[in-house]
Specification:
Layout lengths: L5 H12 L8 E5 L6 H7 L6 E5 L7 H10 L4 E3 L6 E2 L3 H10 L4 E9 L10 E2 L9 H8 L9 E3 H6 L13 H11 L4 E12 L14 H11 L5 H21 L3 H13 L4 H18 L4
Parallel strand pairs: 1-2, 5-8
Antiparallel strand pairs: 3-7, 4-8, 5-6, 5-7
Helix pairs in contact: 1-2, 5-7, 5-9, 8-9, 9-10, 9-11, 10-11
InterPro entries: Glyco_trans_2-like, Nucleotide-diphossugar_trans
Organism: marine metagenome
Pfam families: Glycos_transf_2
Length: 292
């Protein structure tokens, strides 16, 4: 998907021209941009099998992604936000994992913070969910899959009707999608390689206003917690309390943060989240009652 990211889109498409796996189509799903996105797409028609799909403005990436899912002709669908880009072997290595039996493949991404950057040290990290309890692992440990790393079997994502277009899930619709794939029994495989770049240098496709809020975390929990075993549900609820406490802290809502962090400490959250909650609660208390 893209929205008024013409120059970032050019960088993204250049990375597709360099792929070692060459059998793929490109669908640029535009959320009614007002810049020169169409001109940038035209620049790549000689090198890529590329289509520009334009739709009415939705205000989030879910509907443009779903339009791409509907139009895609291949057996696999790879997602790439227009401000991110891939390393040259990304598709080749992902295809190898899919052909070994995976339904959905993903990996770490390098975190890019400035144009012309040549050294990358920080990653957007992923993890391999437990194959025996994928849904519970994703609910307890959080979103394992950086979206611009994901390749999924077309039949799997179409079976769950793609990404939710519920406005209440904007910025967490990808997490909700992975959870629904897990509920369906899809096989998740993580590649050990870091095969792409996540842009954090400003102007991201998901602006600050669209980032996860406590309400969004709670909505995801309510949608999926009923499928968990009681013990896993308690652990997931404890992690939810920590995430909500952290969001409230970052927004300066100290009273709400304190309430959620205490719920985490008194609930069933795993030990690592209790330690995080305790450390954050100390920070909250120091701000609430500063030492003079």
């Amino acid at each position: 998907p893209t929205y008024n990211r013409a120059e970032e889109l050019r960088r993204c498409l250049e990375s597709l021209c360099g792929q070692t796996h060459r059998s793929f189509e490109v669908l640029v799903c535009d959320d009614e941009s007002s810049d020169h996105t169409a001109d940038v797409v035209d620049e790549f028609r000689a090198e890529l099998d590329i289509t520009l799909d334009c739709g009415a403005h939705f205000g989030g990436p879910a509907r443009p992604r779903n339009r791409g899912i509907e139009r895609a002709r291949g057996a696999y669908i790879a997602f790439l936000d227009s401000d991110d880009w891939w390393s040259s072997e990304k598709l080749q290595r992902s295809m190898a994992c899919l052909k070994s039996g995976a339904d959905i493949v993903f990996h770490d991404l390098w975190r890019a913070t400035r144009i012309g950057q040549h050294r990358y040290r920080k990653r957007v990290k992923s993890y391999q969910p437990d194959a025996a309890s994928t849904l519970a692992d994703l609910m307890i440990r959080g979103n394992a899959l950086p979206l611009s790393s994901v390749v999924v079997r077309s039949e799997c994502i179409r079976a769950i009707d793609g990404f939710s277009e519920d406005p209440g899930l904007v910025s967490v619709e990808d997490y909700d999608c992975w959870l629904r794939l897990a509920e369906r029994g899809s096989r998740f495989i993580r590649s050990d390689s870091c095969l792409g770049y996540y842009w954090r240098g400003g102007g991201n496709i998901t602006p600050y206003a669209g980032r996860p809020t406590a309400n969004k975390y709670e909505l995801v929990y309510k949608r999926h917690a009923g499928r968990l075993k009681p013990q896993d549900r308690r652990r997931a609820k404890g992690v939810l309390a920590y995430n909500c406490g952290r969001v409230h802290y970052l927004r300066g809502e100290l009273r709400s943060s304190r309430l959620h962090l205490r719920k985490c400490l008194s609930g069933g959250a795993p030990g690592v989240y209790r330690l995080k909650a305790l450390a954050l609660l100390i920070a909250v208390m120091s701000k609430s009652h500063p030492v003079e």
